[in-house]
Amino acid sequence: MPAQILVTYASRTGFTAGVAEAIGKTLADLGTNVVILPMEDVKDLASYGAVVAGSAIQGAKWLPEAIRFIQTHQSILAKRPFAIFTVCMTLTMKGGEKFHDGVSKWLEPVRSIVKPLSEGLFAGALDIRKIPSFGDRIKFRNS
Predict the structure, then answer these.
(1) How many other CB atoms are there within 10 angstroms of residue 114's CB atom?
(2) How many alpha carbons fall within 13 Å on the CB side of residue 58?
(3) How far is the C-alpha of 51 from the C-alpha of 4, rounded, in Å?
(4) Is the pLDDT of residue 143 over 70?
């Protein structure tokens, strides 16, 4: 039996989870055995033949738990096919394609730990009700 592919993610509002589900479905439709889990639920990578890891962007960085996941599993990720994806609100802005290079640079800390074989950038979505800070909600409404 072929090894499973793990699609794992860190998300604040659920949109990165949605992208992970879409990636997992695409891989499964190709006949691949896929497991989709939040990073906090992944304890061991031994049973996975490949890993796709993704995070939302917050403050021009991957979420802290996503960076910790990459650091924790660095040695095994370096030995497996490994890809990353990022979900970022900046890419939803008018002319978002012009921001791809800038958003891609925000992935340097991930690349410095483990070099991915492939990278994907996805526009995010925002449910203002899921932003915990009133001050941050005001910033989003005025942008």
Answers:
(1) 20
(2) 16
(3) 9
(4) no
